[in-house]
Every structure is written in structure tokens, then in C-alpha cells.
Design a protein that fits this description.
About 0% of the residues lie in helices and about 50% in strands. It is built from no helices and eleven strands. A hairpin with a 5-residue loop joins strand 5 and strand 6.
Length: about 120
């Protein structure tokens, strides 16, 4: 199983970026897909997730600014990030898992991880 994330970069505050993550190695239509991020010196934190049912979940800090979507036919998950802020600067990781809802927002709820892509928002 491999997760390949791409789309990070440098953007000014208020700008937008779109992250994508492609999964390969098996069919993941009944798996949850999520995004986490980790800033220097901080723990990895939940950003957003989309369950196999299509329901979406967001961290309060990104709600209304970020949108997660998935293409089950292509086993890809996207994260559209708008109105970016300097505090959004981090390495963003995509993840794949089958945990129950209560584990959706924690790293332990995921079995596979992408390599991470850097997002830097300048003020």
C-alpha cells in the first residue's frame, strides 16, 4: 500500500492551495481517508477526514476554510485550502484507515500514511 501526497508549496496569507493524495495497492472504497498536519515542535494534529460513507469532519481551526473530498473510483482524497493563515504552516500528511468514528480524529485511527507535503503560508 502506498499513499502519494502532492500539491504543497509556498503561498501568501489569504491564498489557496489544493492538496491531493493518491492511494495504490488495493481498493479503499470502504476506508476512511484523512489529512493531518504537523508543525515544528508540535504534535501531529487532525485537519479533516472523509469516511467511506462520504461524511466529512473538520478540525474547528479549519472549518469553513478547508474542504475535503474523495474520488472513490480513483482512490484519491483532496484538500482544498482557502483563506490560508500563517498558523496553517506545517507538513501535511494524508492517511488511510478503518477506525470507528471515535478514532477518526486521532493518528491511531489510521493504518497507512503518506510521506507528507510542506505547506508554508507567509504573512
Amino acid at each position: 500500500v502506498q499513499l502519494q501526497a502532492f500539491g504543497g508549496g509556498l503561498v501568501q496569507a489569504g491564498g489557496s492551495l489544493r492538496l491531493s493524495c493518491a492511494a495504490s495497492g488495493r481498493t479503499f472504497s470502504n476506508w476512511n481517508m484523512g489529512w493531518f498536519r504537523q508543525a515544528p515542535g508540535k504534535e501531529r494534529e487532525f485537519v479533516a477526514a472523509v469516511r467511506y460513507s462520504g461524511n466529512t469532519y473538520y478540525a474547528d481551526s479549519v472549518k469553513g476554510r478547508f474542504t475535503i473530498s474523495r474520488d472513490s473510483a480513483k482512490d484519491t482524497v483532496n484538500l482544498q485550502m482557502n483563506s490560508l493563515r500563517p498558523e496553517d504552516t506545517a507538513v501535511y500528511y494524508c492517511a488511510l484507515g478503518r477506525a470507528i468514528l471515535s478514532y477518526l480524529r486521532v493518528p491511531d485511527g489510521y493504518d497507512y500514511w503518506g510521506q507528507g507535503t510542506q505547506v508554508t503560508v507567509s504573512s
